[in-house]
Design brief:
heterodimer; A: alpha/beta; 9 helices; 9 strands; B: mainly alpha; MetI-like fold; 2 domains; 0% strand; flat
């Protein structure tokens, strides 16, 4: 059997703060993601889904347990530039053109790029519908176009693992759906393993091979739902009864997650652990 | 909007008339004041005659003062910028440097200047040091804040490709800090002239610079010369500010602070 793209074993993370009780953001979570899979993580706020993403990105270390990306610690995967991150906001640099923004990661940590052929950034931008906007500053683009540029930036290194933290949450419904489609197109072509954090049930189902449902306090994985729908996931598919059935199932798990949380004795803290 | 159209718009009286009217009112008040209080204000005609009578004299002294101001500013800028990078990169450096910088900032420079003159003599050294000191703190504080203002998300994106500290500094932190640096420059360019003049006035034996001109002329009660030197200083400060503002518009065209209001 091949090495999984992401392996999380018993990883926990506690945020301590001086003025309140420590918050158990993540309590001993196990998760295995196979290569080339698109996996969404969904759950109520405070369930640790963003924490999980940061652990896989190597931006934080787990207090217990271990994380491996392609059989290595995340720091090693980052050093080899095999990770891509798309944050909640586009996080483009306002003084660089869209093209220069997209190629900036390639200009950093150059040692890791030796012997690799990177996809042509201009070509990727054209595919993402940003051909015209290539030489424009990000400030002149709409929010949706900026987020598309951020996605192209992450794909631009042809990463093995792409980590996306609610990338579409700030966009309106129409833009969101158009971007989902474009994300899937890029993904079909470049085939990274994707870990995608979202609040939206339909978004999770449309994009993913698997939906991971999490619950809060402590953050944990409640259920992993396999989405057995054909690809490409067209607009018609979203309206099909099968799609709707998955929505019902995932929604029920989310409701369980929510009820679960509220049956537990409330702790004094109860804030978002960040 | 294009530069040309913006320029044409500024030619409209709506833009320059209020300032011109205000200036005329002030000049009229001056004339009245000079008639009533001849020992305090020279008549405008005297002021003009003084300036026009020997422009080379004022230009020479203005050049000396400007040289001290810009030289001191350059020294202060380099020192403050380097320390700002240190302070933003290392907690240890921040804890060591910032308290000293704050103490330096609250110490009145007018009080330090004479001591420096005693230590370094009447040459340019104390003037450069005083000017550098007065420019130092605003640049340090602003640049350090700017270097630290890179958003968490941007940093996370580039940490996941393992960008080095130097790469983060060069590609993210320094460009992000530029608007802060320009804000500081707008403060310290005029301040640099203050520094130079204060230093000249403290070095009672030196014989050039507009500060010296003012000091000597006022001791001899030559009011027109005093005020002529003041006018030259004001014009010089305004020109410096204009240069910084134009440079800022050029460099920071991408930044929202340079976006023009719609009216």
């Amino acid at each position: 059997m091949s090495v999984p793209a992401i392996a999380v074993r018993g990883a926990s993370r506690v945020y301590a703060s001086a003025d309140r009780a420590p918050v158990e953001a993540l309590g001993a979570v196990d998760l295995t993601v196979d290569r080339g899979r698109f996996v969404s993580v969904i759950g109520p706020s405070g369930c640790g889904k963003s924490t999980l993403l940061r652990l896989v990105a190597g931006l934080e270390s787990p207090d217990t347990g271990s994380i491996e990306v392609g059989g290595e610690p995340p720091e090693r995967a980052a050093a080899a530039k095999r990770l891509g991150l798309v944050p909640q906001r586009p996080a483009l640099l306002p003084w660089l053109s869209v093209l220069k923004n997209v190629t900036l990661p390639a200009r950093m940590n150059r040692r890791a790029d030796r012997g690799r052929t990177l996809p042509d950034a201009a070509e990727l931008l054209r595919k993402a519908g940003l051909g015209e906007a290539m030489h424009v500053l990000p400030g002149e683009l709409s929010g949706g176009m900026q987020q598309r540029a951020a996605i192209v930036r992450a794909f631009g290194l042809h990463p093995d693992v792409l980590l996306m933290d609610e990338p579409f949450s700030a966009l309106d419904e129409f833009t969101r759906e158009a971007l989902q489609e474009q994300l899937l197109d890029l993904w079909e072509e470049l085939r990274a393993t994707v870990l995608f954090v979202t609040h939206s049930i339909s978004e999770a189902i449309r994009l993913s091979d698997q939906v991971v449902v999490m619950a809060a306090r402590p953050g944990r994985i409640l259920e992993v739902v396999d989405i057995d729908l054909p690809r490409p996931r067209t607009q018609d598919l979203v309206l099909s009864p099968d799609f709707h059935d998955y929505e019902v199932v995932v929604r029920q798990y989310l409701r369980d997650a929510f009820d679960h949380e509220h049956q537990l004795p409330r702790r004094r803290d109860g804030g978002d652990p960040r | 909007m294009s530069e040309v159209r913006r320029g044409v718009r500024l030619l409209h009286p709506r833009y320059w008339a209020p300032a011109v009217v205000m200036l005329l009112v002030l000049l009229a008040l001056w004339t009245v004041g000079a008639e009533r209080l001849p020992y305090l204000l020279p008549p405008l005609s005297d002021l003009w005659d003084t300036l026009a009578g020997d422009p080379a004299y004022f230009l020479r002294h203005a050049g000396v003062t400007l040289g001290e101001a810009l030289g001191g500013l350059a020294i202060g800028f380099v020192a403050a910028f380097v320390l700002a990078v240190l302070v933003s990169e290392s907690v240890l450096a921040r804890r060591a440097i910032m308290p000293v910088a704050v103490v330096l900032n609250v110490t009145p420079l007018v009080a330090i200047a004479p001591a420096l003159v005693v230590a370094f003599g009447f040459g340019p050294a104390p003037k450069l040091i005083v000017t550098a000191l007065i420019c130092f703190f605003p640049i340090l504080i602003n640049t350090a804040a700017g270097l630290r203002s890179v958003s968490r998300e941007v940093l996370q994106v580039f940490r996941t490709v393992h960008a080095s500290r130097w790469e983060l500094l060069r590609h993210l932190r320094i460009p992000t800090a530029l608007p802060f640096v320009f804000a500081a420059l707008k403060i310290v360019f005029p301040l640099s002239i203050v520094g130079a003049v204060v230093a000249e006035m403290s070095a009672a034996g030196s014989d050039d610079g507009l500060g010296t001109v003012i000091l000597v002329a006022s001791s001899m009660n030559r009011l027109a010369v005093v005020w002529a030197a003041i006018v030259v200083l004001a014009v010089m400060g305004s020109l410096l500010l204009l240069i910084v503002t134009v440079a800022e518009r050029r460099v920071l065209h991408w930044h929202e602070s340079t976006a023009r209001p719609s009216r």
